[in-house]
Amino acid sequence: MARTFAHEPVMVDEVVALFGPVPAGVVVDGTAGGGGHAAALLDAHPHLGVLALDRDPDAVAAARARLAPFGRRAVVQWSTFDRMGEIVRESAGEAPGWPSTDATAPAVTGVLLDLGVSSPQLDRADRGFSYRVSAPLDMRMDATGGQTAADLVNSSSADELARLFAANGEGRFARRIAGAIVGARPVTTTGELAAVVANAVPAPARRRGHPARRVFQALRIAVNEELPQLVRTLPVALRLLAPGGRLVVISYHSGEDRIVKAALAEAVVGGCTCPPGLPCVCGARPEHELVFRGARKPSAAEVARNHRAESARLRAVERTVAQ
Length: 323
Known about the structure:
Blueprint: H1 12-19, E1 25-29, H2 36-44, E2 48-54, H3 57-67, E3 74-78, H4 84-91, E4 108-114, H5 119-123, H6 149-155, H7 158-167, H8 174-184, H9 190-200, H10 203-206, H11 213-223, H12 226-240, E5 241-251, H13 254-269, E6 288-290, H14 300-305, E7 313-319
Parallel strand pairs: 1-2, 1-4, 2-3, 4-5
Antiparallel strand pairs: 5-7, 6-7
Helix pairs in contact: 1-2, 7-8, 8-9, 12-13
């Protein structure tokens, strides 16, 4: 199973460098994938352990195999990343380097979130993520339960589908595509859905790339509740950090990046509501600062080697004071 989840981590050199200065402790890798980022961190930084989480059972198996040589420095758990707070508490003491031996209140010195879908999920046709190969319309990152993309497509109204597609960048033809899908139901395979979308879009628009790309992205995000989970997770991750610890997030979609940017901006002002440029009188207590302004992008060399890295945007924040 582990062999089926070969995934090249994005911006791995940047991630390794960003966690170099953090104090000795544990980095929570909330999106372990095949364990690439975690292995690179453990190789480069002997002062760190890793608690690796992933919601995909195939990824968990691959990460456990990849990280086994590091022994007790690596702990791998099957979970969504919005449960990282409780898993940190449950896992305290399992790996050396935990900054606290108090099982009720362990601290961590890093959190990494590499968002979006992984290459093995896209490349395995049976997972139902890709519009390029016909397969059951699934798209669940955890295929052991929950609604599939077929469930969503065949139960939602045209208005609901149009809003979903518009929110994920398909503004111009969202309503037209939604109506075509409703008219073609039941839609049960990726091939059927891709064909319906393509036929609903005018020919000139089809020449700018496959018209189903944003539709598939929108469905994947909705099926896996990716944005609500991210909203829930970021405050937890920020609270978990020990002084000097860092949160590093790689996003691939404008909706993800807006959420991350807003959460980090809120963190560095401590929730201050005073007008910009004036002294703070509301009592806010900032506990974080940006490691760098804006978002970093992958190098041209990395994009040439791995085209899926092209849309990556990396942001980082550091806890400056204790809670």
